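Quick one, probably user error.
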């Protein structure tokens, strides 16, 4: 079963208040750093409920929700999520994230029969739109029992958690917080990794090409991609690395690079990449052989059954300037040496990634006689020492390759508190509802709790939410039954906290 269309389709799902609110959110463009319309939309929704909204200088919103009658003396509970979404689409999809609403699709898992919601060729934005919708539904439904609430909706989370970084200690009155930005419905998260960006930059001289060369475009597509924190342990192939490996395999062919581009966002495992290269006669044949081999390896090693690496010979009537063969080789070798994927696991917690790096983006910009190449990495670790060690490794590799390397936009991890009173309540409620204990653990992906805890002292926090798969990619999906489960859990937790 597939029902494609707009908000009318998903509004038929249960719980209806959550899906109705999510449909409204999905209709509003809200890429990171461009959340103005999303803020206006939320303001309109909550002011229509008669609720007070406060906004800080960064654009973060706090919505004040009075307690259910009889629960006024309970401590304030903060419900937190982020307004922005990762804006990714398949190359063949026509979609303008600055203007177009997300086209939602109700679909069914062919293996399990489970119903889920996805988007038509783009990211869905359930990360974190479904969390926002649950918070707003809790505030608006008279059947939900709760103490006084503050809904904290932050901006610019996906591009570096910058909204959370700008929070002022007096912006919130509550000191217990439910973050609704998790993606597994049987887990209560109590910790996360920190992160740091690193950028490598080269400025290579270029020269015009002589006659008698072959010009080729090498393209990598069809990869699954995904969240560079939540999916990094799944051994998914990185399009940037596959592209570089294909070009490096023709070492005896003196390639000259004219253009290279791969990936789009720091926290997304790259799904697509391409390069434009010049080479001697028969370069296309050598590249095609290498592409076939690398593609087969991606299928065998990474399970990327839809991977394609295509080599297309292009006309040589108007050849662009290109790097020398020496500079081309130096760049490719440096990119190949940069770390990607899982680098270490937490010794005390089986299966939990401690440290990773995502070789996220490669871009090239041509100017008069020069080609500027910029490479972006996002490193994550629950160990601050290991995070800094990874960044230093990237700096060393880049410097050996002649790059200028900068790092920054660091954010802290969230240290688990197993003695948290809020965790104890959430555990007890989960067991009463579902007959088993939730898995209380940390996550390798970043959530804003670490920064919020640093900015606002004394905050007791947990994170949970419905099952979302493929976040940060056009394969993103949120499972309908899981939204029902998470809504039931959220309302039960709020009712328990309302007792004081």
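Nope, works fine. Designed sequence:
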């Amino acid at each position: 079963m597939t029902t494609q269309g707009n908000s009318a389709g998903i509004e038929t799902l249960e719980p209806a208040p959550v899906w109705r609110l999510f449909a409204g959110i999905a209709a509003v463009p809200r890429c990171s750093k461009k959340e103005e319309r999303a803020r206006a939309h939320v303001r309109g929704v909550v002011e229509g409920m008669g609720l007070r909204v406060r906004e800080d200088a960064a654009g973060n919103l706090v919505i004040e929700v009075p307690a259910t009658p009889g629960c006024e003396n309970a401590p304030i509970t903060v419900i937190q999520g982020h307004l922005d979404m990762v804006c990714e689409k398949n190359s063949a999809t026509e979609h303008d994230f600055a203007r177009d609403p997300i086209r939602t699709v109700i679909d069914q898992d062919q293996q399990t029969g489970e119903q889920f919601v996805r988007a038509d060729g783009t990211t869905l934005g359930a990360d974190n739109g479904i969390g926002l919708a649950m918070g707003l539904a809790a505030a608006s439904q008279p059947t939900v029992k709760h103490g006084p609430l503050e809904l904290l909706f932050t901006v610019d989370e996906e591009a570096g958690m910058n909204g959370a970084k700008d929070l002022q200690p007096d912006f919130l009155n509550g000191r217990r917080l439910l973050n609704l930005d998790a993606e597994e419905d049987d887990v209560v998260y109590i910790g996360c990794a920190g992160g740091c960006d690193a950028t490598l930059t080269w400025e290579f001289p270029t020269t015009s090409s002589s006659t008698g060369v072959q010009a080729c475009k090498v393209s990598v597509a069809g990869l699954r991609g995904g969240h560079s924190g939540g999916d990094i342990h799944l051994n998914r192939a990185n399009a940037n690395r596959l592209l570089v490996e294909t070009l490096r395999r023709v070492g005896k062919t003196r390639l000259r690079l004219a253009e290279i581009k791969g990936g789009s966002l720091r926290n997304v495992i790259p799904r697509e990449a391409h390069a434009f290269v010049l080479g001697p006669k028969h370069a296309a044949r050598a590249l095609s052989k290498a592409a076939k081999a690398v593609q087969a390896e991606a299928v065998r090693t990474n399970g990327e059954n839809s991977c394609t690496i295509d080599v297309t010979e292009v006309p040589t009537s108007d050849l662009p300037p290109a790097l020398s063969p020496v500079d081309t080789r130096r760049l490719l070798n440096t990119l190949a040496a940069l770390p990607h994927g899982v680098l270490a696991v937490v010794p005390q917690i089986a299966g939990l990634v401690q440290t990773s790096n995502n070789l996220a983006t490669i871009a090239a910009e041509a100017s008069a006689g020069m080609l500027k190449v910029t490479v972006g990495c996002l490193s994550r670790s629950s160990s601050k020492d290991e995070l800094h060690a990874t960044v230093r490794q990237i700096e060393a590799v880049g410097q050996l390759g002649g790059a200028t390397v900068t790092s920054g936009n660091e954010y802290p991890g969230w240290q688990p508190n197993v003695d948290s009173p809020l965790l104890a309540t959430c555990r007890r409620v989960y067991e009463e509802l579902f007959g088993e204990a939730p898995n209380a653990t940390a996550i390798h992906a970043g959530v804003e709790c670490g920064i919020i805890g640093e900015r606002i002292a004394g905050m007791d926090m947990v994170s949970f939410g419905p099952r979302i798969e493929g976040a940060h990619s056009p394969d993103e999906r949120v499972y309908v039954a899981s939204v029902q489960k998470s809504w039931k859990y959220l309302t039960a937790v709020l009712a328990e906290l309302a007792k004081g």
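The chain has two domains: 3-193+414-497, 195-410.
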